Amino acid sequence: MIVKASLTALLIATLCWASDAFADKLMVAAASNLQYAMEDILKQFREQHPDDTINVVYGSSGKLSTQIAQGAPYDLYFSADITYPRQLASMGLAASEVLPYGVGRIVLWSATRDASGMTLADLVPEDIQRIAIANPRHAPYGARAREALEAAGVWPQIQNKLIFGSNISQAAQFVETGNAQVGVLALSLALSPRLAPSGSYWLIPDSLHKPLEQGYIITQRAADNELAQRFSAFMGSDRVRQIMRDNGFDLPDSKPDGSTINATQ
């Protein structure tokens, strides 16, 4: 009986090991503004591929790009600025074309004020003392925030009020917790289940900054990863495009599969 039980345990362990060994896995690096859209996308994908494992690490696009260049084990990289994956591709670190997946927008958001009635000029008066943005040096949403504030002519007056998040999610956290009275955040976060019930926003005109064209690559590490190919194909589906729209993104001029679409579709 002991021998039989041992053999049974060994068989179970072997089957578990085999299942794990042949299951497809992905490690994804994604810009922080994509968190809620990506959660919806993964939920839909897992309904069709329940045995596959996809883990996501969120952060600032610049820092994630640097990590990949230094050998971090990411299979796909979703950036809030398409420039970063293009740079990695030019370094020979991509196993796919650079594929656009969305165009982001920035907003003024506040949990304590009616931001829907504000403009960037309203950030100058002394009653607003702390303004949160993502760090412009490595976070695309922070860079576009600075561009908009400069274009509106208020950057010099509000510089000493700024507090910087390492990424757009941390900037949102500063405003959400009251450490800042208002923030320049991603529309995708303003519409999220986390922020939408507790604050209001004003959509910053996109004429005040460069487009937030977002793109991704399959990294060279995942050149032979079939799951990476399946997930990339799924990103071009109508279902994913609807998720992106629902999360506040405009659509790019082309799908991730390379075919042309209307940017407002």
From TrEMBL:
Signal peptide stretch: 1-23
Superkingdom, natural source: Bacteria
Keywords: Metal-binding, Molybdenum, Signal, Tungsten
CDD domains listed in its UniProt record: PBP2_AvModA (cd13539)
GO terms for MF: metal ion binding; molybdate ion binding; tungstate binding
Binding residues annotated for molybdate, in chain numbering: S61, I168
A Gene Ontology BP annotation from the UniProt entry: molybdate ion transport
NCBIfam families: modA
Subunit annotation: The complex is composed of two ATP-binding proteins (ModC), two transmembrane proteins (ModB) and a solute-binding protein (ModA).
Membership in a protein family: Belongs to the bacterial solute-binding protein ModA family.
Descriptive protein name: Molybdenum ABC transporter periplasmic molybdate-binding protein
Source species: Marinobacter lipolyticus SM19
